[in-house]
Amino acid sequence: MTDRIRDFLRVRRDLGQDEGPVMVLDLDVVRDNYTAFARALPDTRVFYAVKANPAPEVLRLLAEMGSCFDTASVAEIEMALAAGASPDRISFGNTIKKERDVVRALKLGIRLFAIDCEVEADKIARAAQAAAVETAEIQVFCRILCDGAGADWPLSRKFGCVPEMAVDVLEHAHRQGLHAYGVSFHVGSQQANTEAWDGALASASAIFQDCATRGIGLSMVNLGGGFPTKYLKAVPGVESYGDAIFRALTKHFGNRIPETIIEPGRGMVGNAGLIEAEVVLVSKKSQAEDEVRWVYLDIGKFGGLAETMDESIRYAIRTEHDADRMSPCVIAGPTCDSVDVLYEKQHYPLPVSLSIGDKVLIEGAGAYTTTYAAVAFNGFPPLRQIVI
Ligand SMILES: Cc1ncc(COP(=O)(O)O)c(C=O)c1O
After folding, report:
1. What is the pLDDT of residues 73-118, one digit of tens each?
2. Of 142, 268, 298, 329, which is least surrounded by CB within 10 A?
3. Residues marked as catalytic
4. What is the Å distance from ligand 1's center to 348 Cα?
5. Res. 48 pLDDT band, cuts 50 70 90
6. Where does the record place the catalytic residues (predicted)?
Protein backbone atom coordinates (compact mmCIF):
# COMPACT_ATOMS: atom_id res chain seq x y z
CA MET A 1 0.00 0.00 0.00
CA THR A 2 1.34 3.45 -0.84
CA ASP A 3 1.53 6.28 1.71
CA ARG A 4 -0.96 8.26 -0.37
CA ILE A 5 -3.52 5.44 -0.22
CA ARG A 6 -2.90 4.91 3.53
CA ASP A 7 -3.44 8.63 4.23
CA PHE A 8 -6.51 8.75 2.03
CA LEU A 9 -8.13 5.78 3.79
CA ARG A 10 -7.32 7.22 7.23
CA VAL A 11 -8.99 10.55 6.43
CA ARG A 12 -11.99 8.78 4.92
CA ARG A 13 -12.39 6.69 8.05
CA ASP A 14 -11.97 9.70 10.37
CA LEU A 15 -14.75 11.45 8.45
CA GLY A 16 -16.96 8.36 8.83
CA GLN A 17 -17.17 7.99 5.04
CA ASP A 18 -15.85 4.46 4.81
CA GLU A 19 -19.10 2.67 3.95
CA GLY A 20 -18.96 -0.10 1.37
CA PRO A 21 -16.04 -1.69 -0.42
CA VAL A 22 -13.98 0.77 -2.41
CA MET A 23 -10.97 0.53 -4.68
CA VAL A 24 -8.48 3.36 -4.29
CA LEU A 25 -6.03 3.81 -7.12
CA ASP A 26 -2.81 5.81 -6.84
CA LEU A 27 -1.94 7.48 -10.16
CA ASP A 28 1.69 7.94 -9.09
CA VAL A 29 2.11 4.16 -9.28
CA VAL A 30 0.68 4.08 -12.81
CA ARG A 31 3.10 6.85 -13.79
CA ASP A 32 6.04 4.81 -12.41
CA ASN A 33 4.84 1.65 -14.14
CA TYR A 34 4.58 3.40 -17.52
CA THR A 35 8.08 4.81 -17.10
CA ALA A 36 9.41 1.34 -16.17
CA PHE A 37 7.84 -0.23 -19.28
CA ALA A 38 9.21 2.52 -21.51
CA ARG A 39 12.71 1.99 -20.03
CA ALA A 40 12.62 -1.81 -20.09
CA LEU A 41 11.53 -1.95 -23.73
CA PRO A 42 12.84 1.31 -25.17
CA ASP A 43 12.22 0.50 -28.85
CA THR A 44 8.71 -0.81 -28.29
CA ARG A 45 5.47 1.18 -28.44
CA VAL A 46 3.24 0.74 -25.38
CA PHE A 47 -0.47 0.13 -26.09
CA TYR A 48 -2.12 0.12 -22.66
CA ALA A 49 -4.86 -2.56 -22.53
CA VAL A 50 -7.83 -0.36 -21.61
CA LYS A 51 -9.86 -3.35 -20.37
CA ALA A 52 -7.62 -3.67 -17.31
CA ASN A 53 -8.90 -0.37 -15.91
CA PRO A 54 -10.58 2.24 -18.08
CA ALA A 55 -10.79 4.99 -15.42
CA PRO A 56 -10.68 8.34 -17.29
CA GLU A 57 -7.91 9.58 -14.96
CA VAL A 58 -5.74 6.57 -15.86
CA LEU A 59 -6.35 6.98 -19.59
CA ARG A 60 -5.68 10.74 -19.45
CA LEU A 61 -2.40 10.24 -17.57
CA LEU A 62 -1.20 7.57 -19.98
CA ALA A 63 -2.26 9.60 -23.02
CA GLU A 64 -0.24 12.54 -21.67
CA MET A 65 2.76 10.28 -21.12
CA GLY A 66 2.65 9.18 -24.76
CA SER A 67 1.02 5.78 -24.42
CA CYS A 68 -1.04 4.21 -27.18
CA PHE A 69 -4.15 2.13 -26.39
CA ASP A 70 -5.31 -1.42 -27.09
CA THR A 71 -9.11 -1.43 -27.13
CA ALA A 72 -11.68 -4.22 -27.21
CA SER A 73 -14.81 -2.33 -28.29
CA VAL A 74 -16.09 0.93 -29.76
CA ALA A 75 -16.87 2.12 -26.23
CA GLU A 76 -13.20 1.67 -25.25
CA ILE A 77 -12.10 3.45 -28.45
CA GLU A 78 -14.30 6.39 -27.48
CA MET A 79 -12.84 6.40 -23.95
CA ALA A 80 -9.29 6.52 -25.33
CA LEU A 81 -10.23 9.33 -27.73
CA ALA A 82 -11.91 11.26 -24.91
CA ALA A 83 -8.71 10.90 -22.87
CA GLY A 84 -6.79 12.70 -25.61
CA ALA A 85 -5.32 9.86 -27.68
CA SER A 86 -5.38 10.46 -31.42
CA PRO A 87 -6.84 7.63 -33.56
CA ASP A 88 -3.39 6.64 -34.83
CA ARG A 89 -2.52 5.70 -31.23
CA ILE A 90 -5.43 3.28 -30.85
CA SER A 91 -5.76 -0.33 -31.99
CA PHE A 92 -8.95 -2.38 -32.14
CA GLY A 93 -7.35 -5.47 -30.65
CA ASN A 94 -10.36 -7.73 -30.25
CA THR A 95 -10.41 -10.54 -32.81
CA ILE A 96 -14.19 -10.78 -32.43
CA LYS A 97 -15.87 -7.66 -33.83
CA LYS A 98 -19.28 -6.85 -35.28
CA GLU A 99 -18.94 -5.54 -38.81
CA ARG A 100 -20.91 -2.41 -37.90
CA ASP A 101 -18.47 -1.78 -35.04
CA VAL A 102 -15.57 -2.00 -37.49
CA VAL A 103 -17.39 0.62 -39.63
CA ARG A 104 -17.82 2.84 -36.55
CA ALA A 105 -14.15 2.39 -35.59
CA LEU A 106 -13.02 3.28 -39.12
CA LYS A 107 -15.21 6.39 -39.06
CA LEU A 108 -13.56 7.34 -35.76
CA GLY A 109 -10.22 7.14 -37.54
CA ILE A 110 -8.94 3.76 -36.27
CA ARG A 111 -6.68 2.00 -38.78
CA LEU A 112 -5.11 -0.84 -36.78
CA PHE A 113 -7.05 -4.09 -36.29
CA ALA A 114 -6.49 -7.61 -34.95
CA ILE A 115 -7.76 -10.63 -36.89
CA ASP A 116 -7.34 -14.39 -36.49
CA CYS A 117 -9.28 -15.79 -39.47
CA GLU A 118 -10.08 -14.96 -43.07
CA VAL A 119 -13.74 -14.00 -42.48
CA GLU A 120 -12.67 -11.31 -40.00
CA ALA A 121 -10.43 -9.86 -42.74
CA ASP A 122 -13.43 -9.96 -45.11
CA LYS A 123 -15.49 -8.03 -42.55
CA ILE A 124 -12.84 -5.32 -42.35
CA ALA A 125 -12.57 -5.07 -46.14
CA ARG A 126 -16.38 -4.71 -46.45
CA ALA A 127 -16.46 -2.21 -43.57
CA ALA A 128 -13.82 -0.16 -45.37
CA GLN A 129 -16.15 0.19 -48.34
CA ALA A 130 -19.04 1.16 -46.08
CA ALA A 131 -16.91 3.74 -44.29
CA ALA A 132 -15.36 4.98 -47.56
CA VAL A 133 -11.82 4.23 -46.33
CA GLU A 134 -9.06 2.90 -48.62
CA THR A 135 -8.30 -0.71 -47.65
CA ALA A 136 -4.59 -0.05 -48.12
CA GLU A 137 -4.72 2.42 -45.22
CA ILE A 138 -5.89 -0.32 -42.83
CA GLN A 139 -3.22 -2.30 -41.00
CA VAL A 140 -4.13 -5.77 -39.79
CA PHE A 141 -2.15 -8.12 -37.61
CA CYS A 142 -2.95 -11.80 -37.17
CA ARG A 143 -3.07 -13.25 -33.67
CA ILE A 144 -1.57 -16.68 -33.14
CA LEU A 145 -2.43 -19.16 -30.41
CA CYS A 146 -0.26 -19.44 -27.32
CA ASP A 147 -0.60 -22.20 -24.74
CA GLY A 148 -0.35 -19.79 -21.79
CA ALA A 149 1.95 -22.12 -19.82
CA GLY A 150 3.33 -20.34 -16.79
CA ALA A 151 0.43 -17.87 -16.59
CA ASP A 152 -1.99 -17.70 -13.62
CA TRP A 153 -4.71 -16.37 -15.94
CA PRO A 154 -4.13 -18.12 -19.31
CA LEU A 155 -6.20 -16.82 -22.22
CA SER A 156 -7.08 -20.29 -23.56
CA ARG A 157 -7.83 -21.12 -27.19
CA LYS A 158 -10.44 -18.43 -27.63
CA PHE A 159 -8.18 -16.05 -29.56
CA GLY A 160 -5.71 -16.72 -32.33
CA CYS A 161 -5.04 -19.39 -34.92
CA VAL A 162 -2.18 -21.82 -35.40
CA PRO A 163 0.93 -20.17 -36.91
CA GLU A 164 0.64 -22.10 -40.21
CA MET A 165 -2.88 -20.72 -40.69
CA ALA A 166 -1.77 -17.16 -39.88
CA VAL A 167 0.23 -17.10 -43.14
CA ASP A 168 -2.94 -17.86 -45.13
CA VAL A 169 -4.99 -15.35 -43.12
CA LEU A 170 -2.44 -12.60 -43.75
CA GLU A 171 -2.20 -13.49 -47.44
CA HIS A 172 -5.99 -13.39 -47.65
CA ALA A 173 -6.04 -9.95 -45.99
CA HIS A 174 -3.36 -8.80 -48.43
CA ARG A 175 -5.49 -10.02 -51.35
CA GLN A 176 -8.42 -7.99 -49.98
CA GLY A 177 -6.22 -4.93 -50.32
CA LEU A 178 -5.60 -4.59 -46.58
CA HIS A 179 -2.10 -3.85 -45.27
CA ALA A 180 -0.90 -7.18 -43.81
CA TYR A 181 1.14 -5.60 -41.04
CA GLY A 182 2.27 -8.28 -38.62
CA VAL A 183 1.65 -10.92 -36.00
CA SER A 184 0.37 -10.78 -32.42
CA PHE A 185 0.11 -13.16 -29.49
CA HIS A 186 -0.56 -13.10 -25.77
CA VAL A 187 1.51 -15.39 -23.56
CA GLY A 188 -1.18 -15.49 -20.85
CA SER A 189 -1.94 -12.96 -18.16
CA GLN A 190 0.09 -12.86 -14.94
CA GLN A 191 2.90 -14.66 -16.75
CA ALA A 192 5.63 -15.54 -14.27
CA ASN A 193 8.05 -16.93 -16.85
CA THR A 194 10.17 -14.23 -18.48
CA GLU A 195 11.12 -16.69 -21.25
CA ALA A 196 7.48 -17.27 -22.28
CA TRP A 197 7.84 -14.98 -25.31
CA ASP A 198 10.58 -17.10 -26.90
CA GLY A 199 8.38 -19.80 -28.49
CA ALA A 200 5.84 -17.32 -29.82
CA LEU A 201 8.62 -15.18 -31.32
CA ALA A 202 10.03 -18.27 -33.05
CA SER A 203 6.58 -18.78 -34.63
CA ALA A 204 6.30 -15.10 -35.52
CA SER A 205 9.67 -15.20 -37.27
CA ALA A 206 8.61 -18.26 -39.30
CA ILE A 207 5.41 -16.44 -40.32
CA PHE A 208 7.47 -13.43 -41.44
CA GLN A 209 9.62 -15.74 -43.60
CA ASP A 210 6.67 -17.64 -45.10
CA CYS A 211 4.87 -14.39 -45.89
CA ALA A 212 8.04 -13.02 -47.51
CA THR A 213 8.16 -16.03 -49.86
CA ARG A 214 4.60 -15.11 -50.88
CA GLY A 215 5.66 -11.53 -51.56
CA ILE A 216 4.19 -10.06 -48.37
CA GLY A 217 6.52 -7.99 -46.21
CA LEU A 218 5.38 -8.01 -42.59
CA SER A 219 6.91 -5.43 -40.29
CA MET A 220 5.36 -5.59 -36.81
CA VAL A 221 5.18 -8.01 -33.89
CA ASN A 222 2.64 -7.31 -31.16
CA LEU A 223 4.06 -8.94 -28.02
CA GLY A 224 0.75 -8.63 -26.13
CA GLY A 225 0.36 -8.35 -22.36
CA GLY A 226 1.15 -10.87 -19.67
CA PHE A 227 3.49 -8.72 -17.55
CA PRO A 228 2.59 -9.57 -13.96
CA THR A 229 1.75 -7.56 -10.90
CA LYS A 230 2.62 -8.64 -7.39
CA TYR A 231 -0.08 -10.57 -5.53
CA LEU A 232 1.06 -13.01 -2.83
CA LYS A 233 4.03 -14.40 -4.73
CA ALA A 234 7.00 -12.28 -5.78
CA VAL A 235 7.31 -11.73 -9.55
CA PRO A 236 10.29 -10.74 -11.71
CA GLY A 237 10.70 -7.03 -12.45
CA VAL A 238 9.71 -5.58 -15.82
CA GLU A 239 13.38 -5.11 -16.75
CA SER A 240 13.86 -8.92 -16.65
CA TYR A 241 11.00 -9.24 -19.14
CA GLY A 242 12.55 -6.54 -21.33
CA ASP A 243 15.91 -8.35 -21.35
CA ALA A 244 14.37 -11.76 -22.11
CA ILE A 245 12.19 -10.35 -24.89
CA PHE A 246 15.13 -8.52 -26.48
CA ARG A 247 17.20 -11.74 -26.36
CA ALA A 248 14.38 -13.70 -28.00
CA LEU A 249 13.87 -11.04 -30.68
CA THR A 250 17.57 -11.10 -31.53
CA LYS A 251 17.64 -14.90 -31.52
CA HIS A 252 14.73 -15.25 -33.94
CA PHE A 253 15.02 -12.11 -36.10
CA GLY A 254 18.80 -11.55 -36.05
CA ASN A 255 19.67 -8.01 -37.11
CA ARG A 256 16.26 -7.50 -38.74
CA ILE A 257 14.28 -6.90 -35.56
CA PRO A 258 10.75 -5.79 -36.50
CA GLU A 259 8.77 -2.93 -35.09
CA THR A 260 7.27 -4.08 -31.77
CA ILE A 261 4.25 -3.29 -29.60
CA ILE A 262 3.37 -4.36 -26.05
CA GLU A 263 -0.11 -4.27 -24.54
CA PRO A 264 0.33 -4.29 -20.76
CA GLY A 265 -2.84 -4.20 -18.66
CA ARG A 266 -2.30 -5.85 -15.29
CA GLY A 267 1.37 -4.82 -15.15
CA MET A 268 0.40 -1.17 -15.72
CA VAL A 269 -2.32 -0.75 -13.09
CA GLY A 270 -2.50 -3.85 -10.87
CA ASN A 271 -0.25 -2.65 -8.04
CA ALA A 272 -1.73 0.89 -8.18
CA GLY A 273 -5.04 -0.16 -6.64
CA LEU A 274 -6.11 -1.37 -3.22
CA ILE A 275 -9.58 -2.47 -2.13
CA GLU A 276 -10.78 -1.70 1.37
CA ALA A 277 -13.54 -4.12 2.34
CA GLU A 278 -15.23 -5.23 5.56
CA VAL A 279 -15.83 -8.48 7.40
CA VAL A 280 -19.60 -9.14 7.49
CA LEU A 281 -19.60 -12.50 9.26
CA VAL A 282 -17.20 -15.03 10.77
CA SER A 283 -18.74 -18.44 11.43
CA LYS A 284 -18.19 -22.20 11.40
CA LYS A 285 -20.19 -25.02 9.84
CA SER A 286 -19.95 -27.27 12.91
CA GLN A 287 -18.61 -27.17 16.44
CA ALA A 288 -15.79 -29.60 15.68
CA GLU A 289 -12.46 -28.36 17.05
CA ASP A 290 -10.70 -28.49 13.69
CA GLU A 291 -13.54 -26.92 11.70
CA VAL A 292 -12.29 -24.00 9.57
CA ARG A 293 -13.76 -20.54 9.93
CA TRP A 294 -15.75 -19.02 7.11
CA VAL A 295 -14.98 -15.34 6.70
CA TYR A 296 -17.63 -13.51 4.67
CA LEU A 297 -16.58 -10.14 3.20
CA ASP A 298 -18.72 -7.38 1.70
CA ILE A 299 -16.97 -8.02 -1.61
CA GLY A 300 -16.83 -11.23 -3.62
CA LYS A 301 -16.77 -12.63 -7.13
CA PHE A 302 -19.63 -10.39 -8.28
CA GLY A 303 -18.28 -7.29 -6.54
CA GLY A 304 -15.06 -7.17 -8.55
CA LEU A 305 -13.02 -10.20 -7.46
CA ALA A 306 -13.98 -12.31 -10.48
CA GLU A 307 -10.39 -13.39 -11.02
CA THR A 308 -10.60 -15.57 -7.92
CA MET A 309 -12.48 -17.94 -10.26
CA ASP A 310 -10.82 -21.36 -9.89
CA GLU A 311 -8.73 -19.56 -7.23
CA SER A 312 -6.48 -18.37 -10.09
CA ILE A 313 -5.52 -15.01 -8.68
CA ARG A 314 -4.57 -15.13 -5.01
CA TYR A 315 -4.72 -11.62 -3.62
CA ALA A 316 -2.69 -10.47 -0.64
CA ILE A 317 -5.24 -9.67 2.07
CA ARG A 318 -4.06 -7.57 5.01
CA THR A 319 -5.83 -6.82 8.28
CA GLU A 320 -5.08 -4.81 11.39
CA HIS A 321 -4.57 -8.05 13.33
CA ASP A 322 -1.82 -9.55 11.17
CA ALA A 323 0.58 -9.72 14.13
CA ASP A 324 -1.77 -12.25 15.81
CA ARG A 325 -1.81 -16.01 15.34
CA MET A 326 -3.13 -17.07 11.94
CA SER A 327 -5.43 -19.98 11.13
CA PRO A 328 -6.79 -21.22 7.81
CA CYS A 329 -10.13 -19.87 6.58
CA VAL A 330 -12.55 -20.13 3.73
CA ILE A 331 -13.17 -16.64 2.33
CA ALA A 332 -16.50 -15.87 0.67
CA GLY A 333 -18.43 -12.93 -0.73
CA PRO A 334 -21.73 -11.49 0.51
CA THR A 335 -24.20 -12.61 -2.19
CA CYS A 336 -26.72 -15.45 -2.02
CA ASP A 337 -24.95 -17.34 -4.80
CA SER A 338 -23.02 -20.44 -3.86
CA VAL A 339 -20.24 -19.77 -6.39
CA ASP A 340 -19.46 -16.55 -4.55
CA VAL A 341 -16.60 -18.17 -2.63
CA LEU A 342 -13.12 -16.74 -3.12
CA TYR A 343 -10.79 -19.31 -1.53
CA GLU A 344 -11.96 -22.73 -0.37
CA LYS A 345 -9.85 -25.38 -2.15
CA GLN A 346 -6.76 -23.75 -0.74
CA HIS A 347 -7.59 -22.26 2.65
CA TYR A 348 -6.39 -18.72 3.33
CA PRO A 349 -4.61 -17.89 6.60
CA LEU A 350 -6.23 -15.01 8.49
CA PRO A 351 -5.73 -13.83 12.10
CA VAL A 352 -7.75 -15.70 14.74
CA SER A 353 -8.80 -12.35 16.23
CA LEU A 354 -10.40 -11.14 12.98
CA SER A 355 -14.02 -10.25 13.69
CA ILE A 356 -17.18 -8.75 12.28
CA GLY A 357 -16.79 -5.12 11.23
CA ASP A 358 -13.01 -5.32 10.78
CA LYS A 359 -11.58 -3.79 7.63
CA VAL A 360 -9.53 -5.91 5.24
CA LEU A 361 -7.19 -4.52 2.61
CA ILE A 362 -6.92 -6.38 -0.67
CA GLU A 363 -3.71 -5.47 -2.45
CA GLY A 364 -2.87 -5.52 -6.15
CA ALA A 365 -6.49 -4.78 -7.04
CA GLY A 366 -6.02 -2.06 -9.67
CA ALA A 367 -6.57 -4.35 -12.67
CA TYR A 368 -9.59 -6.39 -13.70
CA THR A 369 -11.74 -5.51 -10.68
CA THR A 370 -14.04 -2.49 -11.13
CA THR A 371 -15.13 -3.47 -14.63
CA TYR A 372 -15.79 -7.06 -13.57
CA ALA A 373 -18.23 -5.96 -10.85
CA ALA A 374 -21.90 -6.82 -11.46
CA VAL A 375 -24.24 -3.83 -11.69
CA ALA A 376 -26.70 -4.83 -8.98
CA PHE A 377 -26.50 -8.55 -8.35
CA ASN A 378 -28.37 -9.16 -5.06
CA GLY A 379 -28.81 -5.38 -4.85
CA PHE A 380 -25.13 -4.71 -4.20
CA PRO A 381 -23.78 -1.71 -6.15
CA PRO A 382 -20.77 -2.17 -8.44
CA LEU A 383 -17.33 -1.65 -6.89
CA ARG A 384 -16.63 2.05 -6.51
CA GLN A 385 -13.27 3.41 -7.60
CA ILE A 386 -11.56 6.53 -6.28
CA VAL A 387 -8.50 7.70 -8.17
CA ILE A 388 -6.03 9.77 -6.18
C1 LIG B 1 -5.45 -8.46 -26.69
C2 LIG B 1 -5.02 -8.25 -25.28
N3 LIG B 1 -3.96 -7.47 -25.05
C4 LIG B 1 -3.55 -7.21 -23.80
C5 LIG B 1 -4.19 -7.73 -22.71
C6 LIG B 1 -3.69 -7.37 -21.34
O7 LIG B 1 -3.09 -8.43 -20.75
P8 LIG B 1 -2.37 -8.30 -19.33
O9 LIG B 1 -3.36 -7.70 -18.42
O10 LIG B 1 -1.97 -9.67 -18.99
O11 LIG B 1 -1.18 -7.41 -19.52
C12 LIG B 1 -5.26 -8.60 -22.89
C13 LIG B 1 -5.93 -9.20 -21.74
O14 LIG B 1 -6.90 -9.91 -21.81
C15 LIG B 1 -5.70 -8.85 -24.22
O16 LIG B 1 -6.77 -9.62 -24.45
Report:
1. 999 999 999 999 999 999 999 999 999 999 999 999 999 999 999 9
2. 298
3. 336
4. 28
5. very high
6. 336
